[in-house]
Specification:
This protein is an alpha/beta fold and about 325 residues long. The protein has one domain: GSPII I/J protein-like (Pantoate--beta-alanine Ligase, Chain: A,domain 2, 2-Layer Sandwich). Helix content is about 40%, strand content about 15%. It is built from eight helices and eight strands; from the N terminus they run H-E-E-H-H-H-H-E-E-H-H-H-E-E-E-E. The strands form three sheets. It has a four-stranded antiparallel beta sheet. Bound molecules: calcium ion (CA) (2 copies). The site of one calcium ion has 6 residues, from loops.
């Protein structure tokens, strides 16, 4: 008898356990299901809102009616834009990618232009407290050969890096030996690290100063302070002071530079004539970055994209979705 009651009790306990497990599972999975459904619906809405934002940005750029010059007084540069949306919030940033230094041009440039480009990057190293080694390392990262570059005209530590350097790191990888495709790749190159890339309160980061696209001509109307300074310094034997660059940055807010002649109030004749032969500067742009950040019910989707402006529209060069 005792045994039977014992078995019955165990049966009841098992039954109760099964029922509660079923109920538990049901409640948990249905609330989880609901949460997942809401989250994925919000994600999808935020995702499409963000793409809508990118299109909005391209629309603003498409309405730029003066293609001879691109400067910070134009409508596209007045962001961030926040168009009215029913489903959520979206914020759009447009930046001129050609105000930056295109590091991929190092691989394409002929002798004299190449030397100018190297000097431009070395000047930036000075301004951003970065070792000169970053420049030959950048060259080695892109070039097809496996010879370590050393810049003969630079004094002090300036040795590039190929496989033998990267494969001895704690997390080894080979040198790419091809042009860069993704901006964050630059972080893998000898001499660069997260802090230098992002910058600090005192020192600007490389992230905002380099690009991988464009013809390598820096748009002097949109170039950030360090890029403007570094680029002009390449052609000047005198040291170019911060006050002169500040003056130019102030002036271009209202009056864009249209050509090398518009720089004559700031630089002497010798520099101006060197600038005329330079392949490093420009006054307009064909590459722009458009970033859109969308929020729907606490879900955030950010799309970063880079576009080439062509006669017949825009061609995408790069996208990153977060
Ligand atoms: Ca324009
Ligand atoms: Ca190489």
């Amino acid at each position: 008898m005792k045994d039977k009651r014992g078995i019955a009790l165990i049966m009841v306990l098992i039954f109760l356990f099964l029922i509660s497990a079923l109920i538990m599972e049901n409640t948990v999975s249905s609330s989880l299901k609901l949460e997942l459904l809401t989250a994925s619906r919000a994600y999808l809405q935020a995702y499409s809102l963000a793409w809508g934002g990118i299109n909005y940005g391209l629309g603003v750029l498409a309405r730029d009616d003066d293609l001879r010059v691109d400067w910070l007084g134009e409508a596209w540069a007045q962001g961030p834009f926040e168009p009215e949306e029913k489903e959520g919030r979206v914020k759009i940033w447009i930046e001129d990618e050609m105000g930056r230094v295109n590091v991929n041009r190092l691989g394409k440039a002929k002798k004299r232009e190449r030397r100018d480009r190297i000097e431009q990057l070395l000047e930036l190293c000075d301004l951003l407290h970065t070792s000169y080694s970053f420049v030959p390392a950048l060259i080695d990262w892109i070039d097809a050969d496996k010879e370590v570059t050393v810049l003969s005209f630079v004094s002090g530590e300036n040795e590039g890096a190929e496989d033998e350097y990267y494969t001895y790191l704690d997390n080894p990888y080979p040198a790419k030996n091809l042009p860069l495709e993704v901006p964050a790749e630059i972080l893998w190159i000898k001499g660069m690290d997260k802090e230098k890339w992002q910058g600090s309160e005192e020192t600007p980061g490389w992230e905002k100063l380099l690009t991988l696209w464009g013809n390598g001509r820096v748009n002097l109307n949109t170039a950030p302070f360090p890029v403007l300074k570094a680029t002009l310094q390449v052609y000047s034997s005198e040291v170019i002071g911060d006050d002169l660059i500040e003056e130019m940055v102030e002036a271009r807010k209202n009056d864009p530079f249209l050509n090398v002649d518009s720089l004559s109030p700031y630089l002497d004749k010798k520099v101006i004539s060197r600038l005329r032969r330079s392949a490093l500067l420009g006054f307009s742009s064909s590459i722009f970055s458009v970033k859109a950040e969308a929020r729907v019910e606490g879900v955030k989707v950010t799309i970063k994209s880079v576009w080439e402006r062509k006669n017949d529209g825009f061609r995408v060069k790069y996208t990153q979705i977060e």
